Amino acid sequence: MVLLVATVLFTLGLIGVLTRKNVVFMLISVEIMLNAAGLAFVAAGSRWEQPDGQVMFLFILAMAAAEVSVGLALVLQIYHQHKTLDVENLKELKD
Amino acid sequence: MILVWMIGILLVGGIACWLVAQRNTFVCRWIALIAVITAFLIPVGWYVQHQPVIVAGDNWLVHFQADWIPAFGISFHLAMDGLSFIMLLLTFLLGVLAVLCSWNEIREKTGFYFFNLLWTLAGIAGVFVAMDLFLFYFFWEVMLVPMYFLIAIWGDFNRRYAAYKFFIFTQTGGLLMLLSILALYFIHGQQSGGNYTFDYFALLNTTMVGATARWIMLGFLIAFVIKLPMVPLHNWLPDAHSEAPTAGSLILAGLLLKTGAYGIIRFVLPLFPQASFDVAWFAMLVGVVGIVYGALLAFAQTDLKRLIAYTSVSHMGFVLLGVFAFREIALQGVVMQLLTHGVSTGALFVLAGMLKERLHTRDINQMGGLWTAMPRMGGIAMVFVMASLGLPFLGSFIAEFLILMGAFPVSPVLTIIASGGLVLSALYSLRIVQKVFLGQAQTVGEPPRDLSAREWVIMASLTAAIIFLGLYPQPVLDMVRNVIGEMVVRR
Amino acid sequence: MDQLLAYIPAFPLLGFLILSLFGRNLPKQLIGVIGAGTVCIAALITIVVGIAFLQTTPEGGAFSQLLWSWFRVGNLSIDISLRVDALTLVFIFIITFVGALIHIYSAFFMWHDRDYARFFASMNLFVCAMLLLVMADNLVLMYLGWEGVGLCSYLLIGFWYEVPSNCRAANKAFLITRIGDTALLIGLFLLFQELGTLNIPGILQRAPDYFASGSSNIELITILLLVGGMGKSAQMPLQTWLPDAMAGPSPVSALIHAATMVTAGVYLIARMHVLFQLSPVTMAIVAIIGAITLLVAGCSALVQTDIKRILAYSTISQIGYMFLALGIGAWSAAIFHFFTHAFFKALLFLAAGVVIEALHHEHNIFMMGGLRKRMPVVFFTFLAGAAALSALPLVSAGFFSKDAILWYSWSAANGNSFLWLIALAGAFITALYSTRLMLVVFWGEMKTPIHEQPAQGMVIPLIVLAFFSVAAGFIEWPHNMVHLTLFSDHVQKVLPETVMKQGLPSEYLFQAIAAFMTFAGVYMGYMMYYGKPGVRWQQSPGLSATREFLFSGWKFDQLYQFLFVKPFVFITRINKSDVIDRMYNGIAQASLRLNSWFSISQNGSLRLYIVGVLAGILFIITLQLLL
Amino acid sequence: MTYQQYLALLPFIILATAAIVVILLIAFRQSHTVIQVTGFMMMCGVVLAMWYVRDTLPREIPPLFVVDGFAALFTGLIIFSVLVVGLLSYIYFEEREENPKEYYILLFLATLGAAVLTISRHFISLFIGLELLSVSLYALIAYLRNRNNAVEAGVKYLVLAALSSAFLLFGMALIYMETGSMEFSAIARAIDAAGMSVLFVMGIGLIVVAIGFKLALVPFHLWAADVYQGAPAPVTAFIATVSKIGVFAVLVRFAEAIHLETYPLAVTIFTVIAIACMIVGNILALMQQNVKRLLAYSSIAHFGYLLVAFLSGEAGVGAAVFYLLAYSITLLSAFGIITLLSTQRRDADDLSGYRGLFWRSPLMAAIFTVALLSLAGIPLTAGFPAKFFILTAGVQQNMWLLAIVLVLTSVIGLYYYLRIISTLFAAPPLTPVKERTLHPFFYFATYASLVVLMCLLAWIGVYPGFIVENVREFLLIH
């Protein structure tokens, strides 16, 4: 049941990443996905009555935080350089 | 041990050339020359010592074996029999000439040039004596890379294209052969109860069922016929030959093609007697097609070196015909053909190089009437043109005569068509003489000078070789008799 | 005596080596001495050997000498070894003796040429090769000589290489003969496959009990050999090269394209007579080819205007006679005709050379004329030659040999009236064009001034040859006249006697008819050409068309152009840049296109990349759900 | 935890301290050189430690880690690569205006992450290692933020990496849900007991996605070229070697634990991916004019080859290790050349810049040539035995399809390697490029180390026996 919710959440996040053009929103959507995964872990942990699921969730939180911090730093840089956050403008690197 | 010395001297000499050339290119040339000559003298001297052994006809004259990668049953195993010996002599003879004829042709980057030249020779020599399949493949590749550089750096206008084509064609074949080698390796390993080895003599007594054998054999065969080259896999050859520097063409035509034929004789026939016998008729057919097709193309060319290149396509067709006739006479003829074609076509390429040096063109329509200015070169050219159309008392005749003689009982029709190739060969060969040396002199300005002393030495030695082979081929035939004989009884 | 044989070809070879290596640095006198001298020595040795042979026929009927073993592979073993029997003796005598005369002649004839040394080098090499051809005791060595003479004829036809037409002629000669040679080679393969040897004595001795007479194999072998012979001897349909070969200097035409090389085919067939006797069909073919050739070539000779081309065509037709003789099994007659023909045809060519030189390289007979008074020596020698050619009875060598052929062409077992008639017609034509030649060149008023008389050194060979072309016949008389048959006695040590029909009319009758035809030819020629050279021909259009047709050698060249040369050149031209190359370029193109397609995906858009990842996931998931 | 276990972890502890030490040094305002040298020392320390504890292996540290010969091999490989990368970084960053010090922290953290991956036998350690690696990589890639495209590359990598780790996590969660354990061995046991279910298979699939992303396998390869191009040359080297080695290590370990080769499904997937990698990678590189991108594509292809070894199971591991060794040496020397040639403004990634290099500085060109030949797998270079062993493994398992595809695609690959080589040897442009003489000592140190790498390539190429033996020996420790 909870797994289902997690799956839905995950899918939503995925859709968000796909549809959004703005880097910040993309990051947010990724966060949603990560948390969906976390939720899944918690669910699994509760299923087997183990603490590991929740432990894992903590790790996920930490990692998400680190990731977001780096991500936002990069976003700032992008804004400085491109004066926009639209990923469609990030196309200097290509064949 | 002498085999190791031979190869080692070349490798070391090559590096020495490269290093010395920074200061003094003159010394570097001499180093190269001396290195090759010593390498040449080693087998000769050995022959002078051990003559009786050869006459006695023990197949394997010299052995050298050392561990290399024991984990995979790979050993550094060199051995020489009559066939290898003959090929080695050819290799070093042409090697010396190659060094000589690039004496003045190569102006810049001399050191690196001779490095590549010597390493190519080393690789070729290795191919002729390697008796461990891994080692064989190793040398097979080693001779390509320096050759690639020779073409790509010192080549003619269109060199890069030619170099790619050469390398990629041969590499494709090589990798397929590698696959086959591996397959053979495992099959043998499983048969002999976990004795995994790449050793030629061990693998010789591997038994395989028809289909497997045929596939594995194809892997080897493709690699070798690409080198040979066999129509329709010959397309790398005209470009490579025509773009390479003189010495490059000399080595390509004189030696690299031979490695293909050598491979067939040494590996394909003994390892897969039955399988190769099954494809024999097809191979002979393709060989004959090659003879005719190459001749037609040769006749059409106007670029001298390209013309000569196609003639070797035609001549190598004879090799294919002869090898797969599985007759002693034919196989002996094939060995002769390897020698004589090496000498004669090599000589023609050297001539083409000399002409290019003088006239700065390879287009035969811009030549003509050169006999007046260069009677010596004309005479020499006449000799080798006659060799390429198979005139008796020149070695090529013996070769082609034996091949056809041997192939005739096997397949009269194909042999007759192949003999028709002799007429075609007359067509294109005479065209060379007529376009280049006969007719009205076309060159404006002062006439080109005749052969210099150095060039005279080169051509004279080649001429002597081809005539000797034509009038007294017996030593060669004796030398390979046992090898061939074994081959014939195997199948 | 055996040990002498090697020296016969060795001396010319020596001359060749010296001249080709150092020739450019030697004084002309020395070159001439070496060039002619070596051949003269060879001739002397030949005569010594010949005398020895005639005194005591060696056991086995031949001298033989093994020089060294050439190559031995499996059951094939070929030696470099020489063998001289009665037949060979005739040939080497002609080669060396006539050759020596011609060399002496050329020493003066070529004096002003830039490439004096090259000329003599090639000539010596030719003599050497020709000697090897006839002295070889196995067919491979013979083939060596066979190809060698081909090479030399190529070199000498194209001797004046600045003129492109000469080179073309040389190529043509080499290629057409090469076709024959290849057939011959295949013949050798088949022969070896059947008999397991290529040794001439071996073959001759094994063949009869191996082959059933007329079995397909032997027929095939002999036909292949015959084609080889046809190529060298310029018989139909491979005759077209010989007239063009006249591009070479006159001595060359005399030696190679009249006396010796072109008769190699005759030699081959005579040499292999055992095989030919075993194959009646081939024999018939040989006879017919000879007959046709002699007629066709004779007709062409009638209308040529170039003096050397006339002689060339006449050569073809005379060799036609020899083939006819061979075909009907008149072996000794054929060889005898070769013997006499060598003298008078060489003579004619050399004399023609003198005339041409004297008239500023004028080849057209209608620009000559009136030389009778001015160049008496040449006139008389030429007369002797022409007489022999047209076989004037009893006063010319030609009569004795040709009369024998005419007689046998009816009386021999394989002969018949048809062949006889053709031969007769040939005789008539021969007489006609010989007369035409004589009259147009030597009578009438002079059209081109003479600018030099021949040197003494050139005249002497003429006289010697003239003597022989009169006297050479007297060693072999028809049976019904004088019982003197030295030649056939000699030759028949090797060649079988001619088998005759039964119940024939008297031989005198035939001789009378032959003589009559000859005189008729001469008379007609006299009627047509005396005083008013060739006028009547030019008038009527129908005739001039025929004349044109004959003049171009029955349009054979055009035919071959159309049948072989043009298609071949076309094929090679269209495929100049190797069709197969397209395939590989195609592969390369394909991978490049693939590359451009793939790199579309690398357009730098992050969202596309995400889609890519998603696609991957979907792919994997679906794969999982499917399996 | 016992003393023995601590001992076993010693190398990794040293590695961790390296990062901290650097932080402290920065706090004390030490110069770049000092940091560089210290870092170098620390890395050597790690290697020594590894050598020191070698005899006590294998050692389990339940539940997270296991330190065995396999781990030792891969860690050694990683550390070796980092040593070279560090060396390259020095001269590279000395040229740049940015303050390079923090760079080393990130470098060592990332290394730690990779190292942890090699010893992890548990999802948590796997996850931690992976994230340690990737988070530091985001920063490393975008380190030279003022150079155009660095940030772009960083963002691209970040978004995609985060996405992939989301998949990884979800996959893990599914598996955990299914098996009730996050330990590889336990999972394997659970599967053997219960058999596979849809969820488990899904989980595996999602994990494969993450792994595939990190290894830049087709179709998760699209980021590779851009990131390689955008990142600073040393970092690119790092991504190409260290991170991939670590991830590959954990992949192998996981596969071994759950006997991946026994699931036909997984084998099929990997086969398809491998073939796709070989083809797409080589084709994409054909006409590429940018050396860094080209190397990216070639690395895609090379991991395709590597998968062949991976698919042939136990037999392949040795081959894979050898291949990774040869591959990393090769790539490092190639990137070394790129670094040496890079100027202040931009990395030397344009092929036209290499025209006629051989006649300008033969040694550099020689190194680069050898590297390229090794990538092409030509004898006399390490690449040849590497490719040979992989083929051997493939043929041994009768994976003919893969073997033949490998052969044909490496022929295609030949073309673009030759293209670069012939550019190196082409006639040089008229304008000579100015030589850099800054910091000669480190410059030549790097130069020398590159020469050493080249010799190493040649040596391994001619005499691979030694390496093969040692690798086998190490692999036996478990």
Question: In terms of topology, how is this protein built?
Answer:
The complex is a heterotetramer of chains A (95), B (491), C (627) and D (478).
Chain A lengths: L1 H18 L3 H26 L3 H31 L13
Helix pairs in contact in A: 1-2, 2-3
Chain C lengths: L6 H16 L5 H28 L6 E12 L2 E10 H24 L6 H20 L3 H19 L6 H32 L4 H11 L5 H18 L7 H4 L5 H10 L4 H8 L1 H5 L2 H24 L3 H21 L3 H28 L12 H4 L1 H14 L7 H15 L5 H26 L13 H16 L14 H6 L15 H23 L5 H5 L1 H11 L4 H19 L4 H22 L5 H21 L1
Antiparallel strand pairs in C: 1-2
Helix pairs in contact in C: 1-2, 1-4, 2-3, 2-4, 3-4, 3-10, 3-15, 3-20, 4-5, 5-6, 5-10, 6-8, 8-11, 8-13, 10-15, 13-14, 13-19, 13-24, 14-15, 14-18, 14-19, 15-17, 15-18, 15-20, 17-19, 17-20, 18-19, 19-22
Chain D lengths: L2 H25 L4 H22 L5 E3 L3 E3 L1 H27 L5 H19 L3 H19 L8 H30 L4 H11 L3 H17 L7 H9 L2 H26 L5 H22 L5 H21 L1 H29 L15 H4 L1 H15 L6 H14 L3 H26 L14 H23 L2 H11 L3
Antiparallel strand pairs in D: 1-2
Helix pairs in contact in D: 1-2, 1-4, 2-3, 3-4, 3-10, 3-13, 3-18, 3-19, 4-5, 4-10, 5-6, 5-10, 6-8, 6-9, 9-12, 10-12, 10-13, 11-12, 11-17, 12-13, 12-16, 12-17, 13-15, 13-16, 13-18, 13-19, 15-17, 15-18
